[in-house]
Each structure stands twice: as structure tokens, then as C-alpha cells.
Structures
1.
Amino acid sequence: MNAVNMIPDFDPVLEKQVLSEQRIAQLYKDLAGFGEYELIQKESIGVMRSVVMANLGRQPQSDDEIMEAIRPSLKPGFRLRLADNGCSLSPCFDDLFYNPQWLAKARQFMGATLIKPQYVLANLCVAAAAYDRGHIDTPCYRGFGPDQSTSWLRQAMARSGLFEPWRRNFGNFIFWLYRDEYAGNFQYWDRGIDLPPKNIANPYHNSGLWAQNTKLFHRALSLGRPEHRQPLAGLDFDSVLDATDGSGEHWQIRNGPQVLAKYPKQSLRILFHWDFEAFDSLEQMRLVEDPKQQLSVEQMFEIFQSDLNGKGVELSPPTDPLQDENFKKLITENYQLSPLVVPENY
């Protein structure tokens, strides 16, 4: 990866006809029976810190300020993990996690010998305007894994380009289920942030993309009919999406018992996100677990401190860098990176 311009190692690859129609019909039922889906923005506070900073042109002071900045533009996009930490969370999703064909394609895409599936997310979204000007998924480093509490830090580490020797090698396969004609493009900046993005245009039902989303700025544009994209009244951080029956034909957004809106399944754009780690050898895989090869908090701080001091920015050691708001503010202020060419065709 070009750390300054955020260019991925491998060109994204588009795939058509990901699932059979029979599996798609069953998948709606499986999703309907799996539980409540929470707001994506509630979980992705680390990514949202960078989005808010890019939109406001300044550094948010705290997570509470991020929440308040996001609140007026909360989008009805919801998420549930179908597999996590290397484990499928239900037998009905095993084929989305341990898929032999996908494992083979992942090896080919990443040029790797070993593939270790990590998790599967399902993002369910309904009509909404888009505000995202491009983001990267939060990467992992040896010593700094997928703990949500460090997502803001790992975003800054990625943008700095200072921690590539410790970066873990993740890839992704994302695919969509969405039959409605009213959906904006999926855009990605695979040639660098200073060039226009490429587009995957609707219809993209049952299509997928092999990519490295932790090294690839990307975004989804506005969804649904223009007149349906107004903010949903009552939507808040504790709102949930769930199915009203076991068939997956009908869905609702609610705050506790209060129903805010109802939707047929055709109105849902469902994105599945399969993440995996790639290794060239068994020795490389063992390196990830080797305590001697982990980046420590002290090392992380010293690397940031050395780089910032070289730029004339003073960074004093906090007692606990992971909890210190001044450290968080200084790091995210000084390591900003986002697309420079952003089409305004929302």
C-alpha cells in the first residue's frame, strides 16, 4: 500500500451472481430470525470520528461531540454480526463464513497460501441521503486487534503510514441484495485519493466486490427515491430494525415498542461483509500470535511522538494514551487523510 495516498495492494475485482435464487430466498428468512439490528453509526464510532472531522473541517473534542454531530444526520442503516472472531454465530450462516469457493477465490485475490475467516457483517439499509465523503474500514495491527475501543487509534495509525510493519493483512468480499431501481452508486478510490473514484452502478443485486477495504477509501451513495430520503423522525442511537414475521418479507424500525416506519424487503439494501486474514505461510500466521512480535502501547506512542516532534508538534506522554482525550485529539488532528476528488452526485 502507498501509505500517503492509500492505494491498495490489489485491484478490486467485481463478481456477478454470487448466490443462487434459492439461497437468497432462504437468506431473507435466516436474517429475519436472527435478531435485532442496531445502527451502524452507533458501532462505528472510530470511523465516524474521521467522517465528522472531514465534514466539519475540524477535530471533534470527544466521542460525545461526535454523537451529537452525527445525530442530525443519523441514517437508517443497521448491522448485525453473523460471524465473529473466527466463529459462525449460527449454522444457517455457515455457508457465508466457511465457503470453500470463497476461500479459494480469497487465496487467488490476495496471492496467499492460507486464509483465516474473521467475521461476517450484514448491513441492512433503507432510503436515506448520503453524507459520507469516503472512509476506510478500521485495520488491525499486531498488538492492536479488533477491539472497538481502539478503532479511532487504528484509523489514525492507518492514515499515518507509520505502522505498516505491524499491519495485519486483511481482505474483504462484499456483496449486495437489492432489487429496487432507486440506489446510488458504490464508489471506491483504488487509484488514490487525488483521482476520481470508480463506480459500481445499480443494479448490483447479487453482485460482489473483492477488495481491501482497510486500504481502500469507499462509500455508498444515496438510497431510495429522492422524496423518501428525508431524515426519519424519531430515529436515535437506540433504534433497531427487525422483521415483523419469519419470512423476511416485512421489516420495521422501532424505538422499543414504538414503530417509526415499516418496509417491504424490496426496500432493503442488504450488504454482506466477509472479512478474512491472509497469510503467505504458517510461520507468518503464527507471527500474529507471537507475544514478542506485538506492537506495545509504549512503542506506538514513541513512534507517534518521534514523527510529530520531527514536524515541530510537541507530544507529552499521557498516563494512559488509549483513554487520554488530549492524545486522541492531537493524533487524529495530525493524521488526517480523505479523498481529495469527491463527486457531488449524491
Note: The chain has ten helices and 14 strands.
2.
Amino acid sequence: MRVAALYDVHGNLPALDAVLGEVGDVDAIVLGGDMVLGPFPAATLARLRELEGAHWIRGNCERGMVEQDDVDPEFAWHLRWCAEQLGADETVVADGNQVQAVQDLTGGGAKVVLDFVAEQGAEQDGFAMTAPGGSYFVIGYGGQVEIPTLDIISTERNIIGNIVGTYNELAELMALAQSGKVTLHTRTYPLDAAADAVADLDAGRVRGRAILVP
């Protein structure tokens, strides 16, 4: 089996095209992180998405774009620029003032907030960023939403759990998976290797879901 491993492309599209031209016929391509943070992020991402059957691994630069708590402030501007190049209209650094920043950008709060993290304080921030009459969608999991009921009633904000689609759509997806028409990416661990699973998830080594098997 021949595998091409591409690491640290850093948005260098000309270099990526040159390397892909030398790869030739391989059985799999592994994209080992730090792919788009560089001079041509959008074009590089579009080129990588054209690769069929590529296996993606999140690198520290991708992590930094969504988890900015420990990012060097001098480097934060590059992360924000890259996010803007990838389509973000506005960017906000999670520096402790993110709720106020979002409220200022949206004139008092966003009508819709999609929380893909929902833990470690993101769940409280997400609701606080939601405008009166708006909707806070909880997509991630792991935290706890603790909100005085009066705050919900007085502002008429909605809290909506979301499993990325309706229940019927999820059932249809399971039927497609069972018939072999879609591929589910999972990695199983014995129960006594739970710590290894957590470490692999944290390091971005798991593609899809990590499953503990008793």
C-alpha cells in the first residue's frame, strides 16, 4: 500500500501543486495538519478538497483558529486574517471580552448562535451573545447550561438542541450507512484505554468518532 503524507502546507498553493504533481499513483493521501494557515488559505483548501479519499488530521494551526485561549497575541492577527480569507465576515478573539465584542458587532446580540463547543464556558457565552427573541443552538456537548429562567422569559430567547439535522434525517443516514452507501469513520478503543482515546482526540489523531467498547 502506497501512502502520500502531506504536512505543513501552510497555504502555500504553488508548493502544494508541485508536490501533488510528484505524488503519482497512491492508495491514500494523509493531510497531517497545518494545511491552510498561510498566504493562500482559501485556494489551498479548495485544492485539498478536490483530493478523493484524503484523510485529514487537525494540526496546531487549525486548533488555534478555533481554540484561541493559549494563542500568542502576536500570532492572533494571522489566525483572524486566515479566517476572513476563508469566508468569515467578522472575527473575534476569545480573550475574555468575546461576548461584548459580538454584542457590539451585532447591535446587542446575534439572532442565531450556533455553539459547536458547548463546554468550558462556551455554553454561557453562547447564550449571552444571543439577542432578545433570538435562538441559541446547542450542537456541541460536554458542558452544562445554567441560566436563570427569568433571563429566558424576559428576553424570549430560545435554547434549541440540535443533532445536525432532524431525527428523520438521522434515521435516513443510518439506513444509508447500513446499505453501504455512505462511510462512517470510527476508531474503537477498549474501555481500559479510555485515556488513550481522550489523548488521541485531543491531539487530532481520530478521524470521525472514537468509540469505547466495554
Note: Residues 1-95 form a domain with the Purple Acid Phosphatase; chain A, domain 2 fold (CATH 3.60.21.10).
3.
Amino acid sequence: MMTAVKSKIAEFFFAKFGSEDSHIQLYRSSTPLFKGAAGTFGIMVTGAGLSFATTVLLARILEPGDFGLYKYVMAWVALLSIPSSLGSDQLLVREVANFHSKKSWGHLRGILRWSTRAVFFASVAIGSIATAVSFIFAVKDAAMRYAVLTAMVFLPVSNLVALRQSAIRGLNHVIYSKLLENILTPTMFLVSVLLLYFFFTPLLSPAGLIAMRVSVYSIALVIVCILLRSFLPATTFQSAPAYQTKRWRGSVISFTLTSGINTINKRADVIMVGVLMGMDATGIYAVASYGAEIMMFIIMAVNTVLSPIAARLFITGQHRQLQQITTISARVVFMLSFFLCGLLILFGRNFLLIFGPEFTRGIEAFVILAVGKMIHVSMGLSGMLLNMTGFERETAIGSALGVVLNVSLNAILIPVWGLQGAAVSTVIGGIATVILLNVRCADQLGIKSSVFYVFKVRPKP
């Protein structure tokens, strides 16, 4: 039954792309992508359920101010992870896929060693500077001091876990990477929160929760290192490390800028609500933002699986097939996201009530963000395509306008419209970014990834 349904879907989507033989060939080649995306999506949905349960639990057992402080500090961790991770997670997916397909084991070992050292030292340095600056100039509250200090310990550990997960993705073992990221780690953290709540209540504070995250991610780091070593060919460890340091540094700069822009677009609203409206408003808005982020799960699942595939198709010159798979993926993602957006709008108030009656104050912001995420998804996969094909600088340049719009509008609209102003600013910044990336992807690759794409474009050689 499922095979017949998939065949009909494939026939419908492939009707625009040439002969019957090409339909069959493309269907067969894209089957692993859809299976992988379906498996990844299932894992991400399960992980979202675990994360949702944890967030609801924290919102229920913490005071709104403590919950807001926890989300506020973790938003700063996400922001600081941009320069400290050096964009190496995206670089590893592309380079590991590249070197593995070419059987260049020396370079594969080199990129793993170089990225690990660079990210570790960058994380420690940036975390130390951030702690010193916050203690001297900004942080006066004792609870916030402890939370910030613990968060800076968490920074290098979480970055190294993400780095190893990216290497596993580059080796095309996406499911294992997502199982660790979305199932094992959230489960351990949820269990830890429950243990704190029932047996160590005095430690149930923002700093205590972040310290528990440090413990959980330390265990995850050991596990992911063991997994990566088991997936790497034995010849990798027998080969002398080879480095392309100059090229990697150039890519790291672009990836870091792109990651920074994307994270600011995602986190600036939470941080600026905290600065301009206080911790209670931050907690309410963070829940609304969290709910709307569910819209991104579908495209994130496809992106995770499609990234190494896109890198390999581009390297081997299969541009037409890359266009076809991209178009199909974008259309499927949009249809599912459109349906999900309708559900979120219809049951948005009920969703927010799960966290508590006070969180329904964020319903307007929740609806604005949900619709904005749906439009964002409809713009397709252009950023990922540019990053995986060596045009990461285009991604950074195209994303710059979006982050400027986002931060500027947040500063202007939050004092005027409150939570709704933060939501509108974030939506406008995100949509501006993906429109520009779509244009750059069409110009540089001859590939259009928008769901509204109708006309054929000849891929560039």
C-alpha cells in the first residue's frame, strides 16, 4: 500500500522532468532521501515531544521569572556558540562527505583533528571572555551570575558534541546522529529534571538546570566519540593527517557569519524581549516562539538528510538530478508545513494553556510566528544548497540584510507593540533572508528551490 502511494506521489511530482526513464531513475535515486528524511522526521518529532514535555515541566515547576532567566541565559549560549563553533559543524558535513567519497583518508583525519582543536580553544576563550565581561559590567543578580558561569562551562561541551554529530552526518549515518541529538540527550535531561524535582529540590534553579545539562552533554560527548570512531574506516587512523588549512579557514569565516546571522534571526527576539520587557515577558514569548518552531521540523529533517547528498551530487556533476530532488523536497515540505500551520493556528490557545494560563498572553505572537515560519519553509532549501556546494560566502552575504532588518525592527517595534512587535520583526527578517538566498542560489547554481518554482532552469555546468 505504502509503495503504491509513494509511486503515485513520485509520478505526480516527476511529471515535469523529462522522459519515463528519467522518472524511474530519479524515483529510485530519491528513495533513500525520502526514507532517510522520514526516519529523521520521526526521530525529530519524538525528540520534540521530549523537549516539549521538558519545557512544560520547567514552566510548571519554576516561577515565570526563573523560567525566563533560564531561557534567557540559554539564548545567550546559542548566540555565543556561533563564533565559538567557527561554523565547523556545517564545514564538517561537506568536507567529510567530500573526502569520504574520494577516499582521501589523510584529509578526512586532518579535518577532524583541525576542527576539534579549533572549536575547543575558541569555545574556552569566548566562554572565559563572556564570563568576565558579564561579571564586571552586566550581571549583578546572584542567580544570574551562577547561571552565566555554569552556561559558559556548557558551551565547549555542547560545541564538541555538535561537531562530532556533524562528522557522523557527513559519513551518511544521519539516523545515529539524530538519535543521539533528539532522543538520547533530551531523555537524559528530562530524567535529570525529574530527579531534581523529586529528590534535590533546593538545586532546582536556572544554574542547577544548566549544570545538569553539562553532565548530560558530557555523557553524550563520550557516546558520540565512540560512534564516530566505529564509523570511520580503519585506513583513516593509519593515514597521516593532511590539511587544507587556508581553504578551511576561508570557509569557516563564511559559515560562522552565516550561522551567526541565522542564530540572531532566531534568538534576537528572545534576548531583546528580555532586555526591553523583563524576564516574565521573556518566558511567555519563549514559549510562543518554541511552539512556532515546530514548523521548522519538516524542513530540518529534509535538510539533515539532503546536505551530504547535495554535496555528492554537485561534486559528481549531477546538477539536473540535484534540481529535481530539491524541487520535490521543497514541495513536499511546504504542503506538510501548510497543514501543520493550520493546526497550530486552530489549536494555538490550547497549546499555550498546557504551559499555564499566563502563557496565553503570547497567542498573537504565536500565530504571527507560525505563519512566518510557513512562508519561510515555502522558500525552499537554498541556504543549504549554497553551503554544500562551496558558495557559503553567498549565504553569508545574502543573510546579512535579514539580520540587520531583524535587530533593527526588534529595537523599534518591541517598545511599541510588545511581544507582537518581536514576532513581526523576526518574521520579516527571516523572509528577507530566504528571498535573497533564493536569488543567489538561482544565479550561482542555476537551481531554484522555491516551492513556487514553475519554469525550468538549465543547471550550470
Note: The CA atoms of residues 59 and 355 lie 6 Å apart.
4.
Amino acid sequence: MTPRRAPITAPSAWEGRRLRQRTDWIEVLAAAELAEIGRAIETSGVREMPCERITKGGFPLPGLADRLGEAAAEVRDGRGFCLLRGFPAAAYTVDDACRIFWALGLHFGTPVSQNSDEVAYVRSWLLAVVSDVTAQRPLRARKPTFRCPL
């Protein structure tokens, strides 16, 4: 029996070349939403706690919560991702930016480690800082580094 081949038409079967022609996967945060995030970090009391203790209800975003919920539904049931754009990370300390990213992420689901439980020093990584260092070190100047901690 020959398997029947048909194009996959689900929203999660996107192609980069087609995606670049659209912007419906990009959520640009509005000034009012950014102000709400700023108020939440200032008034919610989360600055005194580790990210793991921050709850969705403890970081109130009443004006942004529905929009984040719609984006989360698209991640879960649609194309599988979205891009939140416009957050001024440089305006916050690294610790506050991490708390904000954590709180926003709670609208998308329950945090879980993306690292192996086999490796003690990364066991508790639930949030990591990722930076584009391409301008500081061009691709051709970088040496590939591979590490297997086992």
C-alpha cells in the first residue's frame, strides 16, 4: 500500500518564506500596554520575590490579559508561536525584565525547565537571558562550541 501524500494545511504547517509576507504573527505592544506592564512591576510587590513565586494574579495586567490569552491560544492551537515586539528591555534592570518576561509567560502556560534533569547545574533553569551578539562577534569569527556535560 502506498501512503497517500497530501499537503499539510494546518496553521502550524507554516513556511518561513510565506510567513515573511505576513505580520499577523507579530504582536506589537502598544504604549498603554507597556505602561500597564511598568505599573505592574512598580506596584505588585514582585521585585522582592524570585520569579518562581510570581503568579499571573500577582502581576495584574487587566488591559493586556485578553490579548495575551488570544496570543496563547494561537501558540497552543494555531501556528505554534507568536512574536511579542516592542518591550523596552533596556529600560529595566535585568532582574525586573526577567520578572516581567516570567509574568507575561504565565499567560501562555505553566513554566517548565527546557534542560535535562540529569545536569545538576541547569536543573532549575526556567528562564534564561538570550542575546544577539552577532554584531560583537561576526558569524565567520565564531568557533562552534559543543558541550556534552555527561
Note: The helical segments are 16-19, 31-43, 65-77, 94-105.
